[in-house]
Amino acid sequence: MPCSRPDHSTVSMWTGPPGEEKTMEPAVLDAATLEKLISAAVAAPSMLHAQPWRYRLNPDTVTLEVRAAPERGLRQADPMGRALCVSAGAAVCNLRVAVAHFGWEPVVRLLPHRSQPDLLATVGLAVPSYGGVAPHSDGLYDMIWRRPGSRSPFPGRRLPPTELGVFAEAARGDGATLYSAGPEETARLLRLTAEAERRTAEDHREHAATGGRPPREHRAPVDGRRPTAVLESRPTIAVLTTAHDRRADWLRAGQALEHVLLLATAHGIRASLLHQALEWSDLRWALSDGRRAPGHVQMLIRLGPGVSGPGVSGPEAERPTPAGCHPPGAR
């Protein structure tokens, strides 16, 4: 259940050299750079490309605001707004990467104002006091535009533990836990995913039989069937969890998810998201394995070696058209 108490947390991707302090004096942000920052945020993944967010620049503090746009959300599949917050968290991650790429230190606050529940996060642009330039987030900025995904089978080999360890460390730094499911757990997770797809298909058939129009999130393609992923015989499924299940945790999960996806692209690894079971409350709770990682499952990530090499874009890396960008002063 969501928590009404905001989590006034501050997150920094980079703290500068030991002994040095950052300054939050207003950064100088030109229109071209602002457009690039917003474009990076908009490139974040969201369920069915719903893009349930808006952006606003506070011109006084040169702080970017990430606000919820619930009218763009998927209300039947996401009545509590969990997927909305996860998507917004992914957008925040991209903002962090882009801000660092252009030489500032990103300073993130989650749910900063109790009186503005739609304000999910702010991203400040801190200038290092010694005038240095922030690292470019290990080249992740370029990965924002190149991240490939696939619903087709991946090549046969499983990912080595060393690569999975890199992803787990990144998720941990963002306040989440990522682990690789074993064979038995993978089979259980895939059964739950298949059950979710069966229920959704049944919903569509019921709406069709009564002449009704299914909700946007449950509409099938023109051939009447929802696409079903065809998986390899031994898929690598990574499970992303958080210790709690509040809005702040969903936002952290979104940041961790996008961080892992960007790193996967940098390592030449393809990924696809298995979110179907998360859309059904009973199936979502059944995803959890308290013996392995106590907490709340926020996403299942299928990982596999890429075909075309690191960071190669293609038809499966298509990005939604940018939307939700508001000029200074707009709401």
Mind explaining what this structure looks like?
There is one protein chain. This protein is of the alpha+beta class and 331 residues long. The chain folds into two domains: 9-144, NADH Oxidase (3-Layer(aba) Sandwich); 161-317, NADH Oxidase. It contains seven helices and ten strands. The protein has helices at 31-42, 82-101, 140-144, 161-173, 183-209, 247-266, 281-287; strands at 9-12, 22-23, 53-58, 63-68, 105-110, 119-128, 177-180, 236-242, 269-274, 296-305. The strands form two sheets. Strands 1, 2, 3, 4, 5 and 6 form a six-stranded antiparallel beta sheet that branches. Strands 7-8-10-9 form a four-stranded antiparallel beta sheet, with helices on both faces. Strand 3 and strand 4 (63-68) form a beta hairpin. Helix 2 (82-101) packs across helix 6 (247-266) and helix 4 packs antiparallel against helix 6. It is globular. Mean pLDDT is 80; it is low at 1-6, 11-21, 216-227 and 309-331.
What keywords describe this structure?
about 325 residues, alpha+beta, NADH Oxidase, 2 domains, 4-stranded antiparallel β-sheet, 7 helices, 10 strands, disordered N terminus, disordered C terminus
User: Helical element count?
Assistant: 7
Say what the CATH topology of the largest domain is: NADH Oxidase
Overall pLDDT confidence: 80
- Radius of gyration over alpha carbons? 20 Å
Distance between the termini: 27 Å
The assigned CATH architecture of the largest domain is 3-Layer(aba) Sandwich
Largest sheet: 6 strands, antiparallel
Helix/strand class: alpha+beta
